Structures are given as C-alpha cells and as structure tokens.
C-alpha cells in the first residue's frame, strides 16, 4: 500500500516537471541516450529561419524574420541629414573626387577595400546608423507592453550598433549625397580637379520590433537587419543649387541599393552547466546548446555569440557568464557558425 | 612605462577600490552588500547583483548598460550568491578618467571608440572592490586587453600586443580582444571584435593566458610592472617591522578574505608570487591586509 503511494507521487506530466524543477528537467533530456532537448532539437541544431522582405510599405527596406517562436520585424527608414546641420563637420570628407563608373560594381571589394576602410569613423561619429530594439511589445511575459526599454533591450541595441560598425557592413559612400559644382568657363584655374562636396547624408533608422520572443533575440534581430539592409532602396537624391535644398526622385528605377561588405552571420549558443543549476547536486556535465529558446536561456548562465563571415573570418566573439567554453570548444562553435552562415545565405538568397 | 596601480578601501562603503590601468583608465568602485533588496528585484534563492557604471562624463547610455550586463553575468558566476538569498549586492563603478585619445586623432579611428579597452579595467576594479568588501567569491579572475596588428610581411603571423595598448597601437589594430581567466584556467569572458581567423584567436588566447595566469615568461610588461609596485608596497610596510608570519594568525573577516585568495590560487605558493596579473592582485590584497593589521604589532 505504501509502495503504490510512493510511485504515484513520483508520476506527473512533463509540463509540470518542467515548471517545478526546470534544470533537472533539462538535464533529464540532455543526459538521456538520444540527448535531445525538450524542444526536440539536438544540441547543435538551429531553428530554421524564415524571412519575408519588404512587407512594410512605408519603409525604405524591411524584413520579417522568424526563428521558431521568435519573430521580429525590422524596418529601415532613411532620413536626410544636411551637412550644414552636422555639429562636428571635421569628419566629413572634403577631398572626394568624382566617382568613376566602375566603382559602383558590387564585386570590387578587393580593389576598393583600402580606400573604403577609412569610412568607419565617418559613420560612427556622425551616427549615420541608429539601431533600436523594442522588446516591450508583449513579446513575452517578461516584456510587458508600455514598459521602458529593459537592460536587455538596451544591451541588444548596443550590440547591434557595435557589430554594424566593427564589421563596416554599410559603406559611407552609399549614404553620401554629393554635389559637384559646375565648372565655370572663366575659372582662373582651368586645370583644377573637379571637386565634389558632401551636401548631406542618409541616416538609417533601423528599428526592430519583436512580435514574439522565444529566446535568441540577437540572432533573429541581426538576421532581420541583414535581410532588411539587403532590400533597402534609397531614392536618388541630389542638391539643387537654385532651390538650395536636397531633392529626391520618386522613380523606383532610379533608386540605389546598398552594397554591403560581406555577410557576417551571428550564431548564439547557451551553455548548460550542472554545477550551476538548482537541485543537481552530484551531477556533472555541461552541454552547449545552439540557438537556445527562452526555457533553455533561463537555465543557462553562460552564452556565446560568434559572428562569422566568408573565408573563415571571424568578426566578433562574445562570451560571458561562465567558464565552460574554452579554446577547444570555441573552434567547434566557429565551425558550427560557418555552417549556420550557409543556412542564412540560402534563406537570404545571396 | 606606467604600471597598474590600485588602492583598496578609499571610500566608506562596505568595500571599495581605485584602480588605474597602465593605459590610463582610472576607475573607483564601491560595493555595498548584502543589503535589503526591493521586492520586485528579490530572488528567493540567491542574492541579486546590481552593477552600475557611471561614465567619466555625461550620463550612462546603452553602452554602459551593455557593459553592466557583461559585468553582471561575469560576477554572477563568481559571487557565492546562494549564501545570501533575498538580499542585494550593489556595485557601483565610477570611471574617473580615461586616457587622452584626442591627441591621437580621437575617434578618427574606429577602434578608439570601441568599448573593449575599458572592459578589463572595469573587471579588475570590480574584483578588487569585491575583495575589499569581503564578498564571498567562488574564485577570482584576471582580465587583460590584447590587440592584433597586421603582420609586418605576408610570410609572418600577425603581431599580438599584450602590454600597454597605446592609442596608436589601438588605431592600427585589426582586432581587439578581451580575455578573463579564473586562476584555474577557465575562460570566464571573451570579447573579440575586428577581423581575424581562428588560428589568430587561439594564439591570442595563449598569450592572454600567459599574461593572466601563466608563469610570467615573456610577459614582463603590465604584470611585471604591477608586481614591482605591489612589491614596493610590501617593502615599505616591512620597514614598519611587520613580521610576515604574523599575518597568518589574522582572524575574522580578514582571514575570510585571505582564505578566499588562497583558495582561488592554490597553485600559487606564498613565498614565490609569479609574474602575472593574478600575482599582482594577490600582492595588492596582501599589502592592504598587512596595513590594516599593523595595530597588532603596536606596543
């Protein structure tokens, strides 16, 4: 009689087990022979991204990205910043020469890399890129609508900004609105080089709204930024000397696309360590979980984000919160991230 | 070459420290805890950790929020938070001064506006502050910044700079790396940005490991200088006729502090402190303990 009571008290549905003692629940899944996570994936499986671009009609570029139950919308709006309004004009290049037609090609990275490399400070100091992440949309129970931006949201926005700048993804050349004064016939120096002035810049406001958040906000946000930037069209703009202002053409055929430098893709991993979780005395082991969902993120203190580009280049490594992933682990994670990049490449049609 | 210097206990809070990095970042940290926690932040089974970073000028921005979250996750993994459930450990870091970068072109170079050069100083200050406040720690850590600049010729490997990353060095670097190690050799935090491959990263990892917890061979730079300073402190105190054996009889909170350091670096013998950052931290704390315990010898 007593024995049956004991067996009954130890039986309860998995949902209850997960709620009551989440860490042992995750451990039970991972340490089973098949080693699948509660969400059915293996530890190195990512969720397949789906991307829908240009669904917002009022944006210069937009994308909806979905990773499982994490979904976000990225909208990019371009606004004009006249050079006369820049507080510190010393960063605006003055010695520009008129563009030769062949520099507009997309595949001139190798040739143009050297002259392009200096535009990072120009973009950063003029704040030409303004990313912002909004989590307080009711995207998850932890992010109720109407709340001020949480530390997580601010931190994510900053990481996006750092990554946009350190990868030098966007060329300042694409954002400049130039003006070439006409050469006058009675010019004193007829041989003078024709000069080009930067009259204004396009400032890109990159807003990311999370519709639903089920872990791994950064990968989803960065993926949506990439997809939206790939599809961003800036109207043809020029300086009208007579009107003294910038004019834009509304012809779609004349609009310019952005040419991005490479395709850096982010892959996030969470580390589940039995030494840290509650109620796991005497258990040992650690698992690196690719693309964690909210349930897993809550049980993992350590997280690793690797950003890789083509040719085995690593653009960023962010790892904090614990000491499980070391030198050997990281090599594997970089390899996984390379494979993940191929996946994103397919989805983004590049 | 300037050395890293640190003062423990300059303020009246539970624990405090001022740290000046060789690069010229001066940061003052203060910790209070365990103290009462607001209901909404209360955690039933562990202490809440709050990290506030105040920039040298202006108010905190998203950049400080990001650095705070990095420090929070690092400290959460080393503070024994389960010892103080339903309390708050509040750490405030005020950046007092930053090195003059305008002389080197200010933000004309992208790396100079990066937040990575600041991170090791923040981490070191946070650790010294926690040690000063006798907050029970699982282990200690040491943190360092490394810069990789392009190879002088195509046949060579990229150059890794470990000690005293000057603004010129930052400006020409192709990648920046921050590494934080526990004395046991676990990689607690790694932040890298720029463009590099996995082989370079592994080489940087090894160099960082040598600076932080290695035996000090070939890393005479920051760590060595710091050690000299700590050694000088101890020497000055020895002038006051303090027997080093006396220290082992210390009681109460100080022993807790001392024991914590000892436990964290079991491989480090007391007589022979190695020339690394871990040894430097140990030197700073030992000097402070000796200073505080000088009343025991007053006759």
From TrEMBL, chain A:
<dbReference type="InterPro" id="IPR027408">
    <property type="entry name" value="PNPase/RNase_PH_dom_sf"/>
</dbReference>
<feature type="compositionally biased region" description="Polar residues">
    <location>
        <begin position="87"/>
        <end position="101"/>
    </location>
</feature>
<feature type="domain" description="Exoribonuclease phosphorolytic">
    <location>
        <begin position="262"/>
        <end position="339"/>
    </location>
</feature>
<dbReference type="Pfam" id="PF03725">
    <property type="entry name" value="RNase_PH_C"/>
</dbReference>
<dbReference type="GO" id="GO:0034473">
    <property type="term" value="P:U1 snRNA 3'-end processing"/>
</dbReference>
<dbReference type="GO" id="GO:0016075">
    <property type="term" value="P:rRNA catabolic process"/>
</dbReference>
<dbReference type="GO" id="GO:0071028">
    <property type="term" value="P:nuclear mRNA surveillance"/>
</dbReference>
<dbReference type="InterPro" id="IPR015847">
    <property type="entry name" value="ExoRNase_PH_dom2"/>
</dbReference>
<dbReference type="GO" id="GO:0000467">
    <property type="term" value="P:exonucleolytic trimming to generate mature 3'-end of 5.8S rRNA from tricistronic rRNA transcript (SSU-rRNA, 5.8S rRNA, LSU-rRNA)"/>
</dbReference>
<comment type="similarity">
    <text>Belongs to the RNase PH family.</text>
</comment>
<keyword id="KW-0694">RNA-binding</keyword>
<keyword id="KW-0698">rRNA processing</keyword>
<feature type="domain" description="Exoribonuclease phosphorolytic">
    <location>
        <begin position="46"/>
        <end position="235"/>
    </location>
</feature>
<keyword id="KW-0963">Cytoplasm</keyword>
<feature type="compositionally biased region" description="Acidic residues">
    <location>
        <begin position="105"/>
        <end position="115"/>
    </location>
</feature>
<dbReference type="GO" id="GO:0071035">
    <property type="term" value="P:nuclear polyadenylation-dependent rRNA catabolic process"/>
</dbReference>
<dbReference type="Pfam" id="PF01138">
    <property type="entry name" value="RNase_PH"/>
</dbReference>
<dbReference type="GO" id="GO:0005730">
    <property type="term" value="C:nucleolus"/>
</dbReference>
<protein>
    <recommendedName>
        <fullName>Ribosomal RNA-processing protein 43</fullName>
    </recommendedName>
</protein>
<keyword id="KW-0539">Nucleus</keyword>
<dbReference type="GO" id="GO:0034476">
    <property type="term" value="P:U5 snRNA 3'-end processing"/>
</dbReference>
<keyword id="KW-0271">Exosome</keyword>
Automatic annotation (TrEMBL), chain B:
<dbReference type="InterPro" id="IPR050080">
    <property type="entry name" value="RNase_PH"/>
</dbReference>
<dbReference type="GO" id="GO:0034475">
    <property type="term" value="P:U4 snRNA 3'-end processing"/>
</dbReference>
<dbReference type="Pfam" id="PF01138">
    <property type="entry name" value="RNase_PH"/>
</dbReference>
<feature type="domain" description="Exoribonuclease phosphorolytic">
    <location>
        <begin position="14"/>
        <end position="99"/>
    </location>
</feature>
<keyword id="KW-0539">Nucleus</keyword>
<dbReference type="GO" id="GO:0016075">
    <property type="term" value="P:rRNA catabolic process"/>
</dbReference>
<dbReference type="InterPro" id="IPR001247">
    <property type="entry name" value="ExoRNase_PH_dom1"/>
</dbReference>
<dbReference type="GO" id="GO:0003723">
    <property type="term" value="F:RNA binding"/>
</dbReference>
<dbReference type="GO" id="GO:0006364">
    <property type="term" value="P:rRNA processing"/>
</dbReference>
<dbReference type="GO" id="GO:0005730">
    <property type="term" value="C:nucleolus"/>
</dbReference>
<protein>
    <recommendedName>
        <fullName>Exoribonuclease phosphorolytic domain-containing protein</fullName>
    </recommendedName>
</protein>
<dbReference type="GO" id="GO:0000177">
    <property type="term" value="C:cytoplasmic exosome (RNase complex)"/>
</dbReference>
<dbReference type="InterPro" id="IPR027408">
    <property type="entry name" value="PNPase/RNase_PH_dom_sf"/>
</dbReference>
<keyword id="KW-0698">rRNA processing</keyword>
<dbReference type="GO" id="GO:0071051">
    <property type="term" value="P:poly(A)-dependent snoRNA 3'-end processing"/>
</dbReference>
<dbReference type="InterPro" id="IPR020568">
    <property type="entry name" value="Ribosomal_Su5_D2-typ_SF"/>
</dbReference>
<dbReference type="GO" id="GO:0071028">
    <property type="term" value="P:nuclear mRNA surveillance"/>
</dbReference>
<keyword id="KW-0271">Exosome</keyword>
<dbReference type="GO" id="GO:0000176">
    <property type="term" value="C:nuclear exosome (RNase complex)"/>
</dbReference>
<comment type="similarity">
    <text>Belongs to the RNase PH family.</text>
</comment>
């Amino acid at each position: 009689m007593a024995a049956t009571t004991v067996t009954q008290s130890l039986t309860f549905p998995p949902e209850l087990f997960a709620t009551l003692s989440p860490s042992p629940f995750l451990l039970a899944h991972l340490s089973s022979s098949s080693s699948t996570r509660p969400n059915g994936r293996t530890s190195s499986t990512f969720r397949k991204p789906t991307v829908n671009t240009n669904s917002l009609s009022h944006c210069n570029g937009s994308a909806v990205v979905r990773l499982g139950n994490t979904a976000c919308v990225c909208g990019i709006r371009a606004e004009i910043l006249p050079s006369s309004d820049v507080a510190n004009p010393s960063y605006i290049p003055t010695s520009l020469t008129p563009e030769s037609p062949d520099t507009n090609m997309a595949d001139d990275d190798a040739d143009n890399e050297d002259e392009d490399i200096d535009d990072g400070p120009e973009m950063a100091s003029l704040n030409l890129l303004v990313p912002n992440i909004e989590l307080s949309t009711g995207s998850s129970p932890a992010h109720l609508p109407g709340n001020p931006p949480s530390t997580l949201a601010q931190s994510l926005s900053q990481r996006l900004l750092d990554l946009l700048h350190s990868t030098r993804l966007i060329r300042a050349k694409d954002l400049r609105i130039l003006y070439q004064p006409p050469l006058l016939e009675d010019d004193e120096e007829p041989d003078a080089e024709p000069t080009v002035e930067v009259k204004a810049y396009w400032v890109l406001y990159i807003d990311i709204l999370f519709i639903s958040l089920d872990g791994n906000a950064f990968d989803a946000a960065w993926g949506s930024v990439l997809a939206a930037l790939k599809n961003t069209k800036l109207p043809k703009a020029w300086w009208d000397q007579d009107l003294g202002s910038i004019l834009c053409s509304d012809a779609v055929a004349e609009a310019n696309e952005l040419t991005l430098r490479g395709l850096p893709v982010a892959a996030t991993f969470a580390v589940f360590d039995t030494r840290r979780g509650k109620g796991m005395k005497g258990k040992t082991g650690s698992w690196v979980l690719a693309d964690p969902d909210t349930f897993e993120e809550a049980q993992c203190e350590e997280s690793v984000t690797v950003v890789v580009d083509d040719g085995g280049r690593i653009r960023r490594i962010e790892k904090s919160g614990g000491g499980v992933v070391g030198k050997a682990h990281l090599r594997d994670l970089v390899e996984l991230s390379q494979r993940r990049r191929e996946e994103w490449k397919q989805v983004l049609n590049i | 070459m300037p050395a890293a210097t640190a003062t423990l206990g300059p303020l009246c809070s539970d624990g405090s420290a001022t740290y000046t990095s060789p690069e010229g970042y001066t940061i003052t940290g203060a910790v209070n805890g365990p103290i009462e926690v607001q209901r909404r932040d209360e955690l039933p089974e562990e202490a809440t950790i709050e990290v506030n970073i105040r920039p040298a000028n202006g108010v905190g921005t998203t950049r400080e929020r990001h650095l705070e979250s990095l420090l929070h996750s690092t400290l959460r993994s080393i503070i024994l938070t389960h010892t103080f459930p339903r309390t708050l450990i509040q750490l405030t870091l005020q950046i007092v001064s930053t090195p003059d970068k305008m002389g080197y072109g200010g933000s004309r170079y992208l790396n100079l506006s990066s937040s990575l050069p600041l991170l090791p100083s923040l981490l070191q200050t946070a650790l010294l502050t926690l040690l000063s406040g006798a907050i029970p720690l699982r282990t200690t850590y040491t943190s360092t910044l490394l810069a990789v600049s392009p190879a002088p010729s195509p046949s060579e490997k990229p150059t890794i700079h470990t000690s005293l990353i000057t603004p010129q060095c930052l400006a020409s670097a192709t990648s920046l790396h921050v590494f934080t190690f526990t004395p046991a050799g676990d990689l607690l935090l790694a932040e890298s940005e720029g463009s590099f491959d996995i082989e370079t990263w592994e080489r940087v990892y090894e160099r960082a490991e040598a600076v932080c917890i290695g035996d000090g061979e070939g890393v005479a730079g920051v760590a060595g200088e710091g050690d000299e300073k700590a050694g000088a402190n101890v020497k000055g105190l020895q002038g006051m006729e303090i027997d080093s054996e006396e220290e082992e009889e210390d009681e109460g909170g100080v022993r807790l502090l001392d024991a914590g350091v000892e436990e964290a670096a079991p491989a480090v013998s007391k007589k022979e402190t190695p020339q690394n950052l871990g040894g430097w931290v140990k030197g700073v704390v030992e000097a402070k303990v000796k200073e505080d315990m000088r009343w025991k010898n007053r006759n």
